[in-house]
Amino acid sequence: MSDNLIAFQGEPGAYSHQACRTYVPEMETIPCRTFEDVIETVRSGKARLAMLPVENSTYGRVADIHHLLPESGLHIINEGFVRVHISLLGVPGAKVEDITDAMSHPVLLGQCRGFLRDHNIRSIVGADTAGSAMEVARRGEKQLAALAAPIAGEIYGLTELAHQIEDRANNTTRFLIMAREPDLTRRTNASGDPTMITSFVFHVRNIPAALYKALGGFATNGVNMTKLESYMVNGVFTATQFYADIEGHPEDANVARALEELGFFTSSMKILGVYPADPLRAAQAAEAAE
Q1: Candidate list 29, 41, 58, 173, residue with the active-site label
Q2: What positions does the domain Prephenate dehydratase occupy (predicted)?
Q3: pLDDT tens-digit profile of 156-169?
Q4: What CATH architecture is 1-84+171-183?
Q5: Is 175 designated active site?
Q6: Can 29 be counted among the known catalytic residues?
Q7: What is the CATH number of domain 184-289?
Q8: In contact, 4 and 48? CB cutoff 8 Å
Q9: Which residues contact 231 (CB under 8 A, 6 or more apart)?
Q10: Considering the chain, what is the average pLDDT of its residues?
Q11: What kind of fold does domain 87-162 have according to CATH?
Q12: Is 90 exceeded by the pLDDT of residue 138?
């Protein structure tokens, strides 16, 4: 039944697979080749939900996702934060000193540059993390390893040569859980915290100080903007789209006023989702403040 299926990008054992098991353990998973395939699997009704990575605390944003979200036809209904532990996985009998090349997704390669540099290991770009582990197992070459989650080693019969090799101890990936229909009914998260997140994209009008004026309404109405990112649209330098996350619900009076003011200075605005803040947000904020 599609109602019990969630789609993710990558092979079994990918971090997106781990996110599915963490946040919706009751659902069966559908691995997909690309992010576009994940979105289409949900749009077509073959799966109820999509699990998509949007940013990593070490590497930064997953750029492809920001371009896909506005036109996906899907809505963000939840977020999740997964602690990313990276293992060096090799064929049975291999040792760290045997490894000359390590394969993984570019995002993961960027999260353990220090380890690779210290061990003089060359990076090889793979389609995804678990797929790289599968490829290393298929080749059976002693000098080739994969960078992936420990679960990928278990699935593909590889040996963990080194564990937790990520450059930063707090290495975390944020995932978005998406569905065909929005859910605006909730007002608290699993911990009872009333903090809601509203995500949206917008284009500013071509007038002086448009961005400054567009954002002014959030400040004057006391709305906390937790994220603002810009990126080109269709490869044109003058066509810039902004992605933003704010705390609050569009039905909150102050948020409604801020969004109304935003409309005066934008040529388009689209809400991508309204969802409870993951409890780990507050925990990470408290940790950062220490």
Answers
A1: 173
A2: 5-180
A3: 999 999 999 999 88
A4: 3-Layer(aba) Sandwich (3.40)
A5: yes
A6: no
A7: 3.30.70.260
A8: yes
A9: 63, 66, 67, 240, 241, 243
A10: 91
A11: D-Maltodextrin-Binding Protein; domain 2 (3.40.190)
A12: yes
